[in-house]
Predict the structure.
Amino acid sequence: MTQRHTSLIVSALMGALLAAGPLAMAHAGQQDGNKTPHFITQTDRLIVKYKDAAQGVDVNAVDGKIVPPAAAAANLAVIPAARQAILDRAGQQFGATLRALRATAGGAHVFQLNHTMTLDQARQLAAELKARDSNVEYAEPDRIMTAQATPTDPSYGQQWDLFESAGGINAPAAWDRSTGAGVNVAVIDTGYRPHADLADQILQGYDFITNTTIANDGNGRDSDASDPGDWTTAGQCAAGVPAADENSSWHGTHVAGTIAAKANNGIGVAGIAWNAKIVPARVLGKCGGYTSDIADAMIWASGGSVSGVPANANVARVLNLSLGGSGACDTTTQNAINSARSRGAVVVVAAGNSNTEASTSSPANCAGVIAVAATGRTGGKASYSNTGSIVTIAAPGGDNGAGILSTLNAGTTTPGADSYAYYMGTSMATPHVAGVVALMLSANPNLTPDDVAAKLKSTARAFPAACPGCGAGIVDAGAAVNAALGGASTTPAPAPAPVAPTIAETESNNTVTTANKIATSGTIVNGTIANSADTDYFVVQLPAGKTLSATLSPNASSDYDLYIYNAAGTRLAYSAKDGNGVVEAASTANTGTTAAARYVRVVYYRGGTGATNGKYSLKLAW
């Protein structure tokens, strides 16, 4: 779901690696004559506060012997033997020893480790120590701070979507707590192009495209997930259809860069979760991709088994689907989402680029996904973005000339040199949320998919400009990571989301009195317009306070219309858009205090009829 904008080729300027004490800190090349350090994600120290320190016992005593206050300073780095033994045992499984350096002004001790650790490892060591010693009030990594630490990548200043107060996601506030280490993100898309800014970020993926024409690489499924290009010519996708794009989009590469482009490497841009890894699952090629291939990719990426495909050695906790189509959520896709969620994967999906009701876009309208709308640089709704009650949250997608800068390829049809480009779309908004989810799961891997969704919504910041139907707010990386660090999940992993029933229309239902009864919210009806005089009725007993949403998806050669009436025959809502295959959507609320009948009617306007050419699907939800 992308709108192309301006392409930009950036040369690869390698930065220097400078030594700073016991840790290596990466700096970029010269920028305005200054070198700016990046966030340090390692430490060689731990801070431990003992409960008895507040009473002066720990600081002013050695092995139980009280010392005069004047002599206490000389003993601040001395730890009683019994306490040191606990420190030794806690550090043993991490291959670490802890040597007391000094006491802080707040009465805590600073311990020197014998080697550097990632912040995540240091947090684990701190937790182990606290578990072993009930007298530990708190223990935490002694983090290294830097002055105004932001990525040093030359184009970072153009990534307004990461840091600007109006339209950005507040990424810098998250980066001293999490950079995505240990989390794999599956980009289920067009595949990837090797790129200097994605070096060492791409893990082994898989090409799930079964159709060789769509694949455009000379074969079907294989272990090569690289993108050969998806350019098309007029009539290639369907008779009479113009070229979708005479240039290849390199869409998956752009998405991957937003999530995990390497930061502080002296080139290009910075990804949101720059220490996360990308697992590319290629499902889109020339003219798009099949639902069946996409569903297999979701199951495989999350660690499930797919016949004929080797097991995924790099199981992903986050699935990014910057793709979609019109119509109701199909059973194949819903089952794949349920399967992925059952293994703890968070499924993040684009809401769609049609400036319409998001409930008409699949898989955004499937249960259990995080559906993402797009905002522009002002923080308001992007002109193209779908919206509605199914949208979970919004993120920057670009608008009005201010696009999202990320990694790309300069080739017009076949691959060329590394490049960067500004793209716009909910395809660009989605990886912003996927990247933040990776930061959250790196900070707290025990979060369930429902935990993640709840914390994203509860920490989203208010829209600074109008964005009706855009979900809980704009994703806030800093607040989301803070919420993730607030504690592990206390709830069990959710059961797979229930699949709404799919039923067949029952004739004769061409009058109100013979209307088919629909009792379950989310029901999908497969129906047929037998002839140009045919009409179909369905009745729902709509509970008080609920809103009935009806979505009609005609076949590609037909134009059918949608109406909703009350029991008195008064028309309450309708949708009668022009065009074959155009999805119609209408809704109406029951503002009364008791359940009330609502009659949904499908009417022929033009196009095909009969068992072969008259098919449609109707989703009714409330």
User: Anything to note?
Assistant: Residues 151-484 form a domain with the Rossmann fold fold (CATH 3.40.50.200). The first strand starts at residue 3 and ends at 8. The chain has three domains: 42-141, 151-484, 502-621.
